[in-house]
Amino acid sequence: MGTIIVGMIVLCVIGLVVRSMVKDKKSGKSIQCGGSCSHCGGQCHMR
Amino acid sequence: MSIKIALAGNPNSGKTTLFNALTGSNQFVGNWPGVTVEKKEGKLKGHKDVIIMDLPGIYSLSPYTLEEVVARNYLIGERPDAILNIVDGTNIERNLYLSTQLLELGIPVIMAVNMMDLVEKNGDKIHINKLRQKLGCEVIEISALKGTGIREAAEKAVALAGKKNAEPAVHKFAAGVESTLDEIESRLDDSIPERQKRFFAVKLLEKDDKIQTQMKSVPDVSDVISRIEKEMDDDTESIITNERYVFISSIIDECCTKNRKRRMTTSDKIDRVVTNRWLALPIFAAVMVIVYLVSVSTVGTWATDWMNDGVFGDGWSLFGLVQVPGIPSVLEGGLDAIGCAVWLKGLILDGIVAGVGAVLGFVPQMLVLFIFLAFLEACGYMARVAFIMDRIFRKFGLSGKSFIPMLIGSGCGVPGIMASRTIENDRDRKMTIMTTTFIPCGAKLPIIALIAGALFGGAWWVAPSAYFVGIAAIICSGIILKKTKMFAGDPAPFVMELPAYHMPTVGNILRSMWERGWSFIKKAGTIILLSTIVVWFTTYFGWIDGQFRMLEDMELDHSILAAIGNAVSWIFIPLGWGDWKSAVAAITGLVAKENVVGTFGILYGFAEVAEDGSEIWGTLAGSMTAVAAYSFLIFNLLCAPCFAAMGAIKREMNNAKWFWFAIGYQTGLAYVVSLCVYQIGSLITGGSFGIWTAAAFLLVIGFLYLLFRPYRESSTLRVNMKGMAKAK
């Protein structure tokens, strides 16, 4: 039972992480550079 | 219906500071020109229907630079309801050049004279009422940094935007020029609104060909242009520029009183020392040594030790009163209590906590570094560094303009590479793209801190040397590449305004630190977390006796990752770290550089070592010699950057051949330098002379030849006539 609960929590966390990354990607933010768009001057959005 | 107000002004006049104050945004503010390249929008505090648009800093509405194109296209195409023109009061003469152009756009303009506190401090006076009268628009004194007058400026801009109608520009040029403009205006058709006709007439007279794309029909005014050029014996663009400055001079005489007794400003005095021909470089080197020393080896180390040994280790003591247990022991206790399966416990403790924890352990060091960098940027010193570096870079084929992307790249390589697009010269731009990621970005700091702390016992010189290795790689690359046909040619001239030094606000520094730090933490919780799961799975699963199963700690040499590592680790044997663990750490660093530390955390049993109470990175230190560790550090600093940065290189190069050349060059240079460091370093520290040592000496000789061979201007021009004929 403990394994199932913890496993579900881990899966949920992974799901949320992937969802946030996809959301960031769709909104034009970079996933790997950390998405510090305000610092970089929004230059990712220029093309 | 919403009201749009555009903030327009010269670079470094305080637009973004004003934008943040008006909208409550946290946009990055830097004390060097060109921080804002793209426009940004936000809602005015207390007015949900008022949108404030922060435009890039521009000197004019002529399309000379990318920033000017962005700003001009917005003002002409989108037509905001009002323009809030920010003028730097300490440099009003130059700032008014843009103001005269904005007033011709037919959009209501309100002028905010910024930095009035500095104007008063200098003993100068600006007579606002006279300025208002001369320009024919509302003028308000403000100090964006101190927040004085900004509310009034915003309220007046909103009120002005509500009126919709702009007062026509009151400034007039010489009679001959005015009559020419009247003639051009009469040739414009009804598609151009009456209030914009003067602006388009001026642009047509200036032969601004890009303005024609904004017009439905373009009248032929060549006869008018040739006539006035003949009459005034000058080209029309110069005539208009001259007319504007004649008008501005007349304003300055009447509206400004300069302090005649004024001596050198504090900024001038500081610059006499920090930009001094002989002292500039030693001062810059000393500043960077202090920054990295404090960040990595002293203050940062105390905080990181607390994170690694306490929070992610065996617990810590809160003011000596309460013993707070470490995260791994709390999690382990909880997972044992609910009877969690061994494999899942392993995933959480040996994978996620060990990997992500190892990366997060370096957050304090990064935050200290980011505070220093933010301070140096905001006070104006980094702008001086670009100026200092221009003198050196120029000798080696690059211009100081290339230093701006490198400056931005010290936070993250991706925006650094993107920033190279402001370099007009294609050769310089390509070379800058190739070399920007040699400067250690924030993500490489954990690798530097790990090697400095775990393998060099916190030696003071390791972290600063990483920065100087990056600079040396850029300079040597500049020299070597400039001598090739691909990059030969003089560097483009570099003109940059040096802003006055000022003490940055604590809020601005903390905001900048938090933005950069948060992006690092966010990354640890997303891409690093997913990577650690993959690394854990490939580390703890493998085939033993033909059976695929979970492995014990002693069986990790049979893991999937070990198989991958062993397949490539031979490549790194000459570099001194040919074991599979170091090889896979370097490879996972391609996903994100923090992964190098995360992977070591998993492979060297971060959590278990901490439980034993021993030095957290002790096992790693035992697996590498100091010279091999430094070779590993150099390879990871100079080799191909993470995938995100590689993507940026690919986009900016816009050519597969150039992209692969850049990646190949970076990796090749990293390999050669690491090999030479390890082989020659080992020989000096008592190693034997082998075939790779001989190879290292040959490479050093070859490297020196490429550095010092004479630069020959090409005396022949090779043209592929057959190819040209085919193309025709």
Key traits:
heterodimer, A: 47 residues, mainly alpha, B: 728 residues, alpha/beta, Rossmann fold, Helix Hairpins, 6-stranded mixed sheet, two-stranded antiparallel ribbon, 34 helices, 7% strand, elongated, GTP binding (chain B), magnesium (chain B)
Structure notes:
The complex is a heterodimer of chains A (47) and B (728). With 47 residues, chain A is mostly helical. Helix content of chain A is 62%, strand content 0%. Chain A contains 2 helices and no strands. Chain A is rod-shaped and about 40 Å long. Chain B has 728 residues and is an alpha/beta fold. In chain B, helix 3 packs across helix 10, helix 12 (280-297) crosses helix 22 (462-482) and helix 22 (462-482) packs across helix 30 (626-638). The longest helix of chain B is centred in the last third of the chain and has 29 residues, at 656-684. Chain A binds chain B through residues 1-3, 5-7, 10, 13-14, 17-18, 20-21, 30-36, 38-47, and chain B through 25-28, 35-38, 40, 335, 338-341, 344, 347-348, 352, 408, 411-415, 418-419, 421, 512, 515-516, 518-520, 522-523, 525-527, 529-530, 533, 591-592, 642-645, 648, 651.
CATH architecture of the domain at 3-163 in chain B: 3-Layer(aba) Sandwich
Portion of residues in beta strands of chain B equals: 5-15%
- What pair of chains forms the biggest interface? A-B, 30 and 49 residues
Radius of gyration of chain A: 15 Å
List how many beta strands of chain B DSSP finds.
12
The gross shape of chain B turns out to be: elongated
Helix content of chain A: 55-70%
Please give the alpha-carbon distance between the first and last residues of chain A. Answer: 50 Å
How widely separated are the two ends of chain B? 56 Å
Helix content of chain B: 55-70%
| Biggest sheet features of chain B | 6 strands, mixed
Please report the first level of CATH classification, the CATH class of the domain at 3-163 in chain B: Alpha Beta
Average pLDDT score of chain A: 70
Number of strands of chain A: 0
CATH topology of the domain at 3-163 in chain B, by name, is: Rossmann fold
Would you tell me the structural class of the helices and strands of chain B? alpha/beta
* Unreliable segments of 5+ consecutive residues of chain A: 38-47
- CATH H-level homologous superfamily name of the domain at 3-163 in chain B: P-loop containing nucleotide triphosphate hydrolases
